[in-house]
């Protein structure tokens, strides 16, 4: 009977971890949408949990591997400074928790705006898809992003012609 109770407690704890990791994952994308660099930095592992040179790793689509908080933070600063508007619609979200590490895979359906032709107007909206892998680590103050890897999904645009 005690084993069944421990099994239920373990399943409940695992579900709480899954929910916490998914909340941290959502917080990343919300911070990006809001252009909140401080919030983005807070989601990544801090200096106490990862050294600046090798602690965190990020690969944006089409970018080289970025290592360390300084490079990763700079990349997000550049993205935010050069993106007029961005919105993420996450699909195919899956999470796996193993001890103090969690893996989230998802498809980022991205809607972003370019520079407007006329000042004071909105620029054209552009859509794209990126498949992402986000690796989180549990720390004393919750789950934090350890690694992000995004790869573009290439679409031919010929799907309609094939039907």
Order of helices and strands: HHEEHEEEEH
Q: Strand fraction band?
A: 35-45%
Gross CATH architecture: Roll
CATH topology: Nuclear Transport Factor 2, Chain: A
User: Which whole number gives the mean pLDDT?
Assistant: 88
SS field, number of helical segments? 4
Outline type: globular
Any overview of this molecule?
This protein is of the alpha+beta class and 163 residues long. The chain has one domain (2-155): Nuclear Transport Factor 2, Chain: A. 34% of the residues lie in helices and 36% in strands. It has four helices and six strands. It has helices spanning 2-33, 37-43, 69-81, 159-162, and strands at 57-59, 66-67, 85-98, 101-113, 125-139, 142-152. It has a six-stranded mixed sheet with strand order 2-1-6-5-4-3. A hairpin with a 2-residue loop joins strand 3 and strand 4 (101-113). Helix 1 packs antiparallel against helix 2. The termini are far apart.
Quick structural overview:
The chain is of the alpha+beta class and 163 residues long.
Keyphrases for this structure?
globular; alpha+beta; NTF2-like_dom_sf; SnoaL-like; 163 residues; 6 strands; Nuclear transport factor 2 family protein; Nuclear Transport Factor 2, Chain: A; six-stranded mixed beta sheet; 4 helices
